[in-house]
Amino acid sequence: MLTIIKTLLYIILGFFTFSPLLFTGFLTADDAERHLEVLNSGIFGGVWGVAEATGRLTLAFHIFLTHIPYLSDNFLYRKSFLILPHILTLAYFGYVLKNYLQSNAVALVFIVLFMVFLTNSWEHNLYASYPFAFHVSMLAVIGSAHLLYIYTKNNNIHYLWSSAILYGFAIAAYEQFTVYVIFFLGFLYYQKRPIKKENFLKIIRISIPFVLILLVYISLVIGFKYLFQGRYEGTQFAKFNILSFLITIKTFICSSLPIYVPLKYESQITSQVLDYKISIYSLIENFKFLWAFKIIISSTLITFALKQSDWKERSYSTLKVILIIILLLIFSIFLISLSSKYQNWVIFSGTIAYSSSTYFAQFFAAALVSVLLCTVASTISVSRLHPLTVFLCTTLLLTPIVAVTEYHNNNLLTLQINSANKWKAIDSLSGSGALRDIPPGSIIYAPEFMHTGGIASMREGYWSSYLRGKYGIHLDITAERDRYLSHEYFDKRYKIIFKTIWPFEYYTVNIIKDSLKDYEYNIKNYELNGFYNEEKRGGVTYRWSKNTSSLSICNSGNNATNLSFSSKVNTDKLKADPLRVCILRECRDYLLSSKETLIQENRLFPPGCSKVTFATDASAVHAPSDSRSLYFQIYNIELNKK
Description:
The chain is of the alpha+beta class. The protein has helices at 2-18, 29-41, 47-54, 58-67, 75-101, 104-117, 133-154, 157-173, 180-191, 197-227, 242-254, 260-263, 268-271, 280-286, 289-308, 315-338, 340-349, 355-379, 387-432, 448-451, 462-471, 481-485, 487-493, 515-523; strands at 443-445, 476-478, 535-537, 540-542, 548-555, 561-570, 577-583, 586-592, 597-605, 608-615, 621-622, 629-630, 633-641. The strands form five sheets. A four-stranded antiparallel β-sheet has the order 5-10-7-8. The two termini are 53 Å apart.
């Protein structure tokens, strides 16, 4: 019965740790581009092109792996490739740790601490971005170490070759794991100690699989680099500067330790967006019931593990284990700390964590803390203490760590959800059919979809490719208004149509200061579907319309949003023209003249896309010096949340 309870608690803790990923979307331009490649070119799209452009052979296989999660837009399929690799890597690492150390207690404490320590981070963090590909290489490295350990126990040559093949698979997916060959060979030599003359040839023989795979790998990588001289700064060694290397490796090691990232989040990139400070007051003010629940579950599980007392403190062997874990932690960030790109990021941009290197280092950091905790527990004979005493001490230790980590994670999660709303809004708009009403080749001016509302900022042209690949809609979405508004440009090539599209739920939680103010400014003076080109004559801007125009308003959230819609409308002649404005299903009639008429309505907009329609049955009014017909003009459109 106790085993069932503990298993259930681990499942609940895992749910708290990984369920936030159900609400995130693309967080990096890399992820979004991989998805786009699959949409437009299939699973092999861009694989060799990127490898050739960067001169990185391993990138071909790595990008192929990154494409797999995007073969389907099915929610369950996509999220499985985001969440399950976390769970598999954590479980397998814990299993190997248990077998090597012969301790259930250390392994169980490690699993709890990893989930408690796991920090959400900025774009390049494996918790919420880069699904699957990096985890494949991690699982391969862990599997290689596991099979090598089995080989040292039974001397079955098949396990040795299987270990080497998995190592080759890991470095084929990500070159950063190349350095682990030092550990694998060192482990083999250590198991055959003492190294006597008669054993020397045997040691060389058992090293052959790893040496052979490494030589083949290096030959292919260098040969490819010779043929394709692409440059990627991330794999270029920095000019030798021991201080820069030590600062970088120290920073990345520290970022794998508990609560270091939340307390030291000073990257120049993120400081412009993250708007919160961690203090005792802020933690108390924002403390949530779920945090307390997570603390209680974690403390309970650690208490169970420490009371098992199967880790016996032995000074020499414990010191050896600690040194090995520290060595592996250093291996996980060693090569990346040598590169020019990441040294510059750390020293000049204030970056403190990056991608798989610091994420994998968190496994060793949690393992290190679990060994130290179990060693202390064994030294003071925790098994003799009352369980409540152990529980209370553990709770005191975990409470500040959980509070700081969760507060930071929740703030990042809000931005990540906002980022996902961009894609929800575009999908809702496309699904509503509103975009299909716009002539092919037209341009939608929507800077907010490129640069604001969360984390991911997309390159110019991304959304155009997205619409074409996913929906077969040939439109341009741009943030470069000035370029497209030049007469020379659009008169020769384009018909300009502006459309307001904005997921209003971006700012349900107002983390980004002045975000609503910026939003109101951006949305003013956008044209509606149906307008002809904008013209300026004698300092007056004319916007020409047919007798019906419509505006799509998309609410990407799950709840209805109360909005205030306002605009100014007039015609060009002193006469009364009827204009019917329909917002959702409610319509109201206005009388227009050359004087401005203010339209202002409050409506509760449901999730999805809704239309505001402007229509008149008035006879056309001939516009001076123009053969086209003006029915009415709409301008100064504003949308505000109530």
